[in-house]
Amino acid sequence: MQRKDSSDTLLSVLAVACDAAAIFGGFLLATWLRFDSGLLSVAIPPPPGLYHLYSLGGIAATVVMLLVFRGHALFVRPQTGSFVDKIPRLIRATGVGTFCAAVMAFAVQNEADFARLVIGISFFTITLLVLLERYILFRIEWNLARHCRTKSHVLILGADHVALHVTRTLKAEPMLRSQVVGFLRTHLEPSHLEIPRELILGTLDDLKTCIRENRIHEIILTDSSISHDRIVQILLLCEQSLVRFKMVPDLFRIMTTSMDVQSLNDIPLLCISPWPLDGFWNRQVKRIEDILGGLVGLLLSLPVLAVAAILIKRSSPGPVFYRQERCGEGGRSFILYKLRTMPVDAEDATGPVWTVENDGRRTPVGQVLREYNLDELPQFWNVLKGDMSLVGPRPERPHFVEQFKEAIGNYMSRHVSKPGITGWAQVNGLRGNTDLRERIKYDLYYLENWSLSFDFKILLRTLVSRKNAY
After folding, report:
1. Which residue in 186, 261, 286, 330 could disulfide with 223, CB within 3.0 to 4.6 Å?
2. Average pLDDT of 337-354?
3. What residues does 185 pair with on adjacent strands?
4. What pLDDT, on the 0 to 100 scale, is given for residue 264?
């Protein structure tokens, strides 16, 4: 594993160097825009030694902002997720760093006169350059990870749906440079049907041999039902073999609700956290976000809606807009608006059914609208009305809600807030006729971890995600 650790260190050092260059360059670019570009009027001629003074200020600002970036864990390697996922944290860190640099500049105002406009412009120039160099660095790191030959060998203890979920997650994250070499059954029953038989390397009794023969670097225990004594034995064997040990907690199987660790004197207590959107102020902030975003979205979508309306009317008889009853916050019903993508009588013979891939009921125009999520544009009106939010769990029809709430215990928890035009499940490809339990996990994760930056990340990913859009 030494090679992998060394590459992570080199990538972290490279990130620090590139960030430093982008921050310093952004500060000097802001200085040039303010004084020499001619784009901004200058009432007083720039002082002599301008760039010498601002270069010193840029160096100080770079040091401060690098410390802020470190505090936001921007140099930790490996980093998982897409580049879009990292944009909100990068912007937030740049904003905090610019504020700290501004405070420092005003603190030395008597010794050095820094223009406030330069500091304001520098936020935008630094953000732009940091995003650019971070994207280039991300692509380099991504390609290196994909073609990396020295991958960490992972052995999974368990052969159930949790083990399969962990495997898929590791495979989808090349940045981790991990390779699942196989599974060990923890019980005598057959393994999960979707796990190839050749990857079942034996049972827990074969653990020591398996570690030695497959040069295992990391073990992940997904079956927490095995005894405490057996877990201790596995831990001791991992320590003796210099193998990292990780374990999926038992709570992962029964709930996803966020938990706080509290203390009753010396007794640790796990407590279920309240939903972030239970808070009054969080709800007001999200409503302001919805109103502003809904207005902008509706205005920008008007030309697209006009063209789509003409194409829909020409492609098949019937109205342009499709009205459908959906379940919203608290299980209350509302009317959802969409651009019509199917004939008016599409469900007359079948009743309510989910749309599936290559659904023959769609019109040619409807196929294009669904592929690019354009059929959802009228829902900006639902957002302005207050029935929906920009981001949230997708609303379902009452017919399906009645079925799902009986079959899935925590299904109704996704109705604690307003449904959204897009959501965390949707940008991860869980839409339409996909695994409902997985969708609920993603919906509840969003509700438990809501923040403005999380909403911003989902909106950005919505613009570039077309996975399972049908």
Report:
1. 186
2. 74
3. 203
4. 55
- pLDDT, mean of residues 236-256: 74
Residue 117 lies in a domain: yes
- Please state, in angstroms and as integers, the Cα–Cα distance from residue 268 to each residue in 224, 258, 259, 260, 448, following that order: 20, 16, 12, 10, 22
More confident residue, 259 or 339: 339
Q: What is the pLDDT of residue 258?
A: 58
C-beta of residue 187 within 8 angstroms of C-beta of residue 164: no
Instruction: Please count the structural domains in the chain.
Output: 3
Does 460 reside within a domain? yes
Tell me: do 10 and 125 sit in the same domain.
yes
Q: Which two tokens stand for residue 395?
A: 């609303």
Examine the domain organization and report whether 329 and 457 are in the same domain: yes
Query: In residues, how long is the chain?
Result: 470
State whether 441 and 303 are in the same domain.
yes
Angle at Cα 365 formed by Cα 360 and Cα 370, nearest 5°?
75
* Cα–Cα dist 301/148, whole Å: 43
Do residue 124 and residue 24 come from a single domain?
A: yes
Residue type, 20: A
The one-letter amino acid at 424: W
Residues 295, 244 share a domain: no
Within a domain: residue 126?
yes
Q: What integer pLDDT is reported at residue 255 of this predicted model?
A: 53
Does the structure show a pLDDT above 70 at 331?
A: yes
Q: How many CB atoms lie within 10 A of CB 34?
A: 22
- Contact in structure between 440 and 414 (CB atoms under 8 Å): yes
Q: Which domain holds residue 221?
A: 152-254
For the chain, the helix, strand and coil percentages under 3-state DSSP, each to the nearest 5: 55, 15, 30
